[in-house]
Amino acid sequence: MLILAKAALGLCATMVMAGVYVFREGVIRVNVDEHREGGAHVHVWVPATIVSVGMHFVPKDQLNRVTEETRPFLPVLREVAKELEKYPNVELVDVADARDHVRVAMVDGKLRIDAVSADGDVVHVSVPARVLRDLADELEERAPGV
Question: Has this prediction a pTM greater than 0.85?
């Protein structure tokens, strides 16, 4: 019985450590609600680690094409992402008219984009700033000549 308890404790500790590793970079959250007949309601929460891990599974020809197209913008993306990390709570853009409202802000170290249309459609996207920097670094590493 003692061996079974030790095995269970080891398994639980391993699962906790795996969870900590997977969620160490935070969570990417996407919520879309269309308020109309047959409208979509999509709510996705994924660990931000999926971006860096997913980069290793992108076919090389597709990744080469993307890095070629984005090469001029990669240094800017890296610098913007690095600077965003310095301002964990700041409003970047807030635009509203009689029909729509869009807000882009850093909230607790995450780039958050909120959009609400006059039809009642709502989109919320939240991405940790660190993920943007890691993505820019990864793309720059794979794009020679930057």
Answer: no
